């Protein structure tokens, strides 16, 4: 069978499913094109002079890498002129970026983490881009932060790219999750997996164990049960992985199942958690649910959380359904007993 390019896939989806409008198709293609540029910049590594810190800090007070800044610029420039967007919001920028008046405006809002896992860049480990598409509320021509504060169920598309041994784009527009691989020779993303499915059960978990002593009681208890293995209450051994690039950890789960946890802990309680709701948790939750998995904040379905601020952080529990439901139930039981 002839390879199916991202463009052909989207055109066919547009014909068969009315939800994909021509503007949404253009938007996804433009994001994909920008990701190809980012992929190229990353692959040059030391030779491209793009490694190391930018000597700047983002709105969250985190040191920016040169590639954080570059990836952000690439995504902004690519998406400004097409006429498909009303505004963009990035993890790297304090406020939304409006479309300059010299360009036409569209009906969508684009949200992105231009380079997730960027602390891994300098050691040549996979990083990625995460994005989410929302509708601009009707009648709004100059969107502000408040217009981006929509619960994840409102997303019309979400995806991530993994810049790893190969560059992958994983996408949902609300009817399954599909994977495309960048064919560097022809310069286009090619469909390599249709309808990714996350197995409901798993024996593999991803968590940063160094935070264990700071976790809440139900999390301590749950992970201890996993670590107790075959002779413990779960009656089987569990394996652990932690890349510290959410895209890479989530992609492993998309491929072979597993769970990814970033619970709230004593260090992050004041901020609400470690990961950002709009740029990381919501798009990944949409993708994971579309692949048959589950995603919660430990208590509540992530997609139902209405953001209170553009850069809000939340706890994240996602992946194989039965395991996520189990850890969520433990938190709820704990809360009920405490109250
Ligand atoms: P950076 O983009 O600052 O490297 O953060 C990556 C991330 O947001 C997410 O991709 C990882 O899963 C998580 O943080 C890793 O956090 P720890 O460094 O606390 O393990």
Automatic annotation (TrEMBL):
Q: Which reaction does it catalyse?
A: beta-D-fructose 1,6-bisphosphate + H2O = beta-D-fructose 6-phosphate + phosphate
Arranged from A to Z, the UniProt key words for this protein are: Carbohydrate metabolism, Cytoplasm, Hydrolase, Magnesium, Metal-binding
- Domain Fructose-1-6-bisphosphatase class I N-terminal, first and last residues per copy: 5-193
Asked if the Swiss-Prot or TrEMBL record annotates the protein with the keyword Hydrolase, the reply is yes
Name under which the protein is recorded: Fructose-1,6-bisphosphatase class 1
User: Which residues are recorded as binding Mg(2+) 1?
Assistant: 91, 113, 115
Recall the taxonomic lineage recorded for the source organism. Bacteria, Pseudomonadati, Pseudomonadota, Gammaproteobacteria, Lysobacterales
Q: Supply the source organism for this entry.
A: Pseudomarimonas salicorniae
Cofactor binding annotation: Binds 2 magnesium ions per subunit.
Q: Which Gene3D superfamilies match?
A: 3.40.190.80, Fructose-1,6-Bisphosphatase, subunit A, domain 1
């Amino acid at each position: 069978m002839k390879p199916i390019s991202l463009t052909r896939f989207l055109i066919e989806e547009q014909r068969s499913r009315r939800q994909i409008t021509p503007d949404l198709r253009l938007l996804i293609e433009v994001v994909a094109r920008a990701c190809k540029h980012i992929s190229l910049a990353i692959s040059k590594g030391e030779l491209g002079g793009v490694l190391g810190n930018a000597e700047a800090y983002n709105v969250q007070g985190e040191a920016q890498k040169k590639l954080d800044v570059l990836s952000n610029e690439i995504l902004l420039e690519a998406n400004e002129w097409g006429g498909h967007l009303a505004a963009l919001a990035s993890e790297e920028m304090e406020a939304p970026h409006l479309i300059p008046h010299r360009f036409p405006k569209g009906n969508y809002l684009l949200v992105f983490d231009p380079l997730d896992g960027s602390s891994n860049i300098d050691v040549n480990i996979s990083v990625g881009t995460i994005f989410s598409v929302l509708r601009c509320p009707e009648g709004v021509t100059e969107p502000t932060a408040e217009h981006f504060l929509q619960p994840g169920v409102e997303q019309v598309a979400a995806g991530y790219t993994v810049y790893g041994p190969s560059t992958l784009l994983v996408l949902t527009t609300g009817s399954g999750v599909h994977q495309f691989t960048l064919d560097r020779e022809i310069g286009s993303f090619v469909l390599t997996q249709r309808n990714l499915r996350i197995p409901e059960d798993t024996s593999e978990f991803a968590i940063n164990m160094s935070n264990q002593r700071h976790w809440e009681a139900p999390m301590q208890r749950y992970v201890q049960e996993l670590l107790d293995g075959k002779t413990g209450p779960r009656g089987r051994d569990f394996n652990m992985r932690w890349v510290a690039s959410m895209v890479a950890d989530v992609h492993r789960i998309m491929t072979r199942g597993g769970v990814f946890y970033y619970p709230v802990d004593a260090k992050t309680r004041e901020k609400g958690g470690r990961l950002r709701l709009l740029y990381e948790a919501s798009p990944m939750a949409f993708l994971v649910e579309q692949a048959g998995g589950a995603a919660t904040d430990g208590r509540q379905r992530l997609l139902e959380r209405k953001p209170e601020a553009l850069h809000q952080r939340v706890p994240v529990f996602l992946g194989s359904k039965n395991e996520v439901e189990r850890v969520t139930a433990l938190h709820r039981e704990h809360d009920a007993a405490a109250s």
